[in-house]
Automatic annotation (TrEMBL):
Species whose genome carries this gene: Deinococcus rubellus
Oxidoreductase in keyword set: no
Molecular function as annotated in GO: ATP binding
Protein's UniProt name: ABC transporter ATP-binding protein
PANTHER family noted in UniProt: BICARBONATE TRANSPORT ATP-BINDING PROTEIN CMPC, SPERMIDINE/PUTRESCINE IMPORT ATP-BINDING PROTEIN POTA
Length: 226
């Protein structure tokens, strides 16, 4: 498939042509320099951008737009400052039309998963950057996504908090068997976190391999960052 911005005007910026299969339950990291197409790929996988050629399928069925099983968490985590933490999580559940009880249960579960039980009534401005990012993750987890798409979710955090949250995310992935696609421009992070790494350059896949079989030097070389 391929997606190019302003394709009608003949521009080539964007993604593809490429073919990518994300396997159920895997933790895939996507790495590449700025402008290589990482965010575009996630927007296509989330159903926000419709490829100009090819199709996105989920379990064999074509996806025609945003889908409840596909949840994207972006870097600017877009929490609503005028809502409480619980209000923010409930907002993410709106489209699922759940009963009140189920909504509360999912909110409590999600807060526990990210280590912030008891924070439901807090206001967003009372939280640290790391806590806000955990809430953004909790909001996504509460939707019980089949595919969790994370676009450099922890890049604004200090190194220690970043490592902490990354480890929590790994724990959640192992416990829930959710499928994760994690975008980062940090090569070491890409290799440390995922089971499989896809490297993008100029909108093309230049490497697709199990993380255990790739060295940071190899990654640097295919991305021309050595
Ligand atoms: N809305 C847009 N309109 C036109 N071109 C765009 C748009 N968004 C992205 N592009 C272009 O498409 C290409 C891929 O961009 P994309 O944002 O997917 O890269 P990225 O790897 O996520 O970059 P970064 O790491 O800087 O976020 C770039 O050349 C970019 O300039």
């Amino acid at each position: 498939m391929a997606y190019h911005y302003n394709a009608r005007r003949g521009q080539r910026a964007g993604l593809g042509p490429l073919s990518l299969k994300v396997n159920a339950g895997e933790f895939l990291t996507v790495v590449g320099p700025s402008g290589s197409g990482k965010s575009t790929l996630l927007s296509v996988l989330a159903g926000f951008l419709k490829p100009q050629s090819g199709v996105l399928t989920l379990a064999g069925q074509p996806v025609k737009g945003p889908h409840p099983a596909l949840t994207l968490v972006q870097q600017e985590h877009a929490l609503f400052p005028w809502l409480t933490v619980a209000g923010n999580i409930a907002f993410g559940l709106k489209s699922q039309k759940l009963g009140r009880e189920e909504q509360v249960r999912r909110t409590l579960d999600a807060l526990e998963q990210v280590g912030l039980s008891g924070y439901g009534e807090r206001r967003i401005h009372e939280l640290s950057g790391g806590q806000r990012q955990r809430i953004a993750l909790a909001r996504a987890l509460a939707t019980r996504p089949g595919l969790l798409l994370l676009d450099e979710p922890f890049s604004a955090l200090d190194a220690r908090t970043r490592t902490e949250i990354s480890q929590e995310l790994l724990g959640i992935w192992q416990a829930q068997q959710v499928t994760v696609v994690f975008v980062t421009h940090n090569l070491d992070e890409a290799l440390a976190l995922g089971e499989r790494v896809v490297a993008l350059r100029g909108g093309q896949v230049v490497l697709d391999a199990p993380t255990g079989e790739v060295s940071p030097e190899q990654l640097r070389m295919v991305l021309d960052e050595s």
